[in-house]
Amino acid sequence: MRKIKPVKTREQRLYEWDKWMDIYNGEVHDYWIPESNKKEKKEYIVVNYAQKVPQHIARILTNKKPKITVQDPDIQKFIDKVVFNNHLIENLPGAIIATMVLGDYLVRTTYRRINENSPKPQVCIDFVHPEWYVPKMDSWDKSKVKTNELIFENEEEGVQYKRIEKDSYNLFSEEFYVKTDKDADFVLVNGQKIEHDGGLLIQHLAIDALPNEFWGRSIYKTTESLFRSLNEFITQVADVIRKHGKPKMAVPPSTFRELVKRSPVYEDAQGNRYVMVKNREVYCVEEGEKNPEYIVWDAKLDSTFELIKLLQIAISVINDIPADVLRNTDTSIPASGVAMDIMHLTSKYRAAEIAKIFKKSLETALYQAQLLEIDKGTELTGKKAEWVNVEFELDIPVNNDEHVKNEIYKYEKGVQSRKRTVIRVNDLNANELEEELELIKQDKAAPKPSETSHNQLEQTG
């Protein structure tokens, strides 16, 4: 019988998430340096290459504001308001970085007061760290979730607080608990339930999850050893330069004997004796009474620098980013615009993969936002929820003529409306669509330039 690999416990996932985030923040000493080696821990140099990878991809995805559009102008105004009130555009870069670093993240859509001072409940969409997440999986398919739970815990002045959010299909509930004594049990003090038609309001985002897998993979899962080796080699280079930064001195035996009387004697790795004089190593000349002289270090580090470069290239290849993100290229001639596009093309393809995950989750969340507002609020009274289109602008080279032909072909075959065709060809939102259609109408009604010129000539003649 095939051996089944045990599923990671929640505690194991929490440890990994903390580790990946520490690596992103450059706090690697507890993972890459033995705790017992205090001296090495102090001198370890952290060059935070690991932070550059997710930042580069996030910048590609959010360098231009994503277009979030619907056809109905009134719904468009509501969507724009939800996006603005929940700071979705501002929080998106951080959410992309966190999802790549952790491998997992959450998008939650609710209807509640944003804070205690809010005059009334409203649609809330936010990104949530998976450390609070407890999914209930399908017993037959561990890649599918049946219900979600978020368990938040806090303690202030000896009082413990707990909030549990339970998310099942078409029912979302919140329960608030308090524990005033460490030996007591949590007591339910408040709660609310929201019935809706939006399915699960908590969405799990997973990066690089394989089929039939639920949890994602951190980008550091396969590259941690490369980042670690890179920092170790840089530390070794710095350590060598530090040790040999001040030339050693060699003195005759008579002078060395006098120094020994005042200073302790040490031995280097080769067994040579020396004393420390003003932070400088002083050795003894074994033969004759020569004048004191400096021992100059003439070793080379070319091979080490080549190895560092190879590690940087390996990291860039595995993470689909250009090598110049991690190091300066060996050229004084700036690359052309076309060359830059080609150089960053693999990064854009990688960004496009991640964009698909965020596109689906944001479109779902904004559709759920409409359902909640229609049912609980007043801003969309009499409206029917409309699917939202979220487009990330990645500037990936495409044949625009082919794109236009395809959209017109779909319109002519009756599988796409005229409005949708205009939106997709001209990349418009609902408000811009109405303006564009009016301009098209005016253009059709206006006389053609050739007709105008002919009429003017007749009048002149």
Features:
461 residues; alpha+beta; five-stranded antiparallel β-sheet; 15 helices; 15 strands; 44% helix
Overall pLDDT confidence: 82
Quick one: overall form? elongated
Strand order of the largest sheet: 4-5-6-7-8
Rg, Cα atoms, Å: 32 Å
Report on this structure.
The protein is α+β, with helices and mostly antiparallel strands and 461 residues long. Among the domains are: 246-296, no CATH class; 399-461, no CATH class. 44% of the residues lie in helices and 19% in strands. It has helices at 10-24, 29-32, 38-43, 49-62, 73-85, 88-102, 224-244, 253-262, 302-318, 337-343, 345-376, 400-412, 418-426, 430-445, 449-460; strands at residues 67-69, 104-112, 122-128, 136-137, 145-156, 159-168, 171-179, 187-195, 202-206, 248-251, 265-267, 273-277, 280-284, 293-295, 389-391. The chain has a five-stranded antiparallel sheet, with no helix packed on it. It has a five-stranded mixed sheet with strand order 11-12-13-10-14, with helices on one face. A three-stranded antiparallel sheet has the order 3-2-9. Strand 12 (273-277) and strand 13 (280-284) form a beta hairpin. It starts with 9 loop residues before the first helix and ends with a helix. The model has no long low-confidence stretch (mean pLDDT 82).
